[in-house]
Design brief:
CATH topology: H-NOX domain
CATH superfamily: H-NOX domain
Mean pLDDT: 84
Number of strands: 7
Number of helices: 9
Strand content: 15-25%
CATH class: Alpha Beta
Length: 213
């Protein structure tokens, strides 16, 4: 098992990625709006219109960031291609997707004092048990569940299924979010390890471990 820390999680490239046309998976609009907000904060020199222009013609024909509603649901391909477009624009690799997920989640929780208070009060172990509920707030109809791994308070495993259309960038974004939630709930020295994934990356098993003060 190879344990890695912040920004360093590595995943294989999908060899049989499900196309946007056949994937039923959708992300909530807050994923997209938070993405643009984070881009403006981290990369103020990036032209958001130019970012959209780098998306594929098929997605670009449907994608209008001005019409994205925070509570709406949108194709996974939109979010997937935003990551690719940003990496191409700023000259970065997949590690940027981890950072985006991390920064987006920290901003969402910090901006909502109730979320941050609840996370901090519950602690990493309890927050991780709420992972399925948190995931289902942002994605559908994909699922996540906690996998028991025996004794120990400072580690846990999650299994995601039905994530058709997820690529390496979307997974790294998700892992960045997991890292941020564990950190906000009091976890320290957090490490994440992908243990298993399907060839098309529609299923994933990940283990996390952390320390607490």
């Amino acid at each position: 098992m190879s344990w890695v820390s912040k920004y360093e999680v590595e995943l294989p490239s999908a060899r049989s990625l499900t196309s946007s046309a056949t994937s039923p998976v959708e992300c909530k609009g807050i994923n997209i709006t938070s993405f643009f907000t984070t881009v403006e904060r981290l990369f103020p020199e990036v032209d958001l219109g130019g970012l959209v222009e780098q998306m594929s013609p098929a997605v670009r024909a449907e994608f209008n960031p001005r019409k994205v509603l925070v509570g709406g649901w949108y194709p996974v391909a939109w979010y997937r291609e935003l990551h690719g477009a940003l990496q191409a624009t700023v000259g970065s690799g997949p590690e940027l997707s981890f950072r985006m997920g991390y920064e987006n989640t920290r901003a969402d929780f910090t901006g909502n004092g109730v979320y941050r208070f609840v996370a901090r009060s519950l602690g990493p172990s309890t927050v991780l048990t709420l992972g399925a509920r948190i995931f289902n707030f942002y994605w559908r109809p994909a699922k996540m569940k906690i996998v028991p791994i025996g004794q120990g308070k400072n580690h846990g495993r999650g299994r995601w299924t039905g994530c058709l259309g997820f690529d390496r960038n979307v997974w790294l974004d998700l892992f960045g979010s997991v890292y941020a939630v564990l950190e906000l709930s009091g976890g320290q020295d957090i490490e994440l390890a992908p243990l298993d994934a399907s060839e098309d990356l529609s299923t994933m098993l990940m283990e996390a471990r952390w320390k607490v003060s």
